[in-house]
# Entry
Amino acid sequence: THGRVTPVSSEELARHNTREDAWMAIRGKVYNVTRYMDFHPGGVDELMRGVGRDATKLFDEVHAWVNYQQLLIKCYIGPLRTVVKMDS
Ligand code: HEM
# Structure
């Protein structure tokens, strides 16, 4: 999947919420963190709290300074596609 960028909906993101298939959105970008899991200095359980969803807040609460873009450069999937509701 190297070099391919695919927009991801929040529904699609939510389907990848397991230890073996873990996606995570940070600041509008979706990453496949499955392979990073074992290397996370904060441990697997902590990282798992953020999978399948937008983990920006969790991430920033713990370590807003961490350069995740660089660490996860090979794990990037694509932008989180946000749906704008026109009604209500
Ligand atoms: C620690 C990276 C997501 C919780 C760390 C550290 C790095 C890191 C580099 C070591 C920081 C240091 O030098 O002290 C990442 C990356 C993430 C991510 C790249 C995104 C994929 C998360 C999430 C949580 C989390 C979602 C959920 C709460 C923690 C905790 C520590 C930690 C608790 C230990 C802090 C400490 O003991 O000082 N992470 N992290 N991380 N991370 Fe993450």
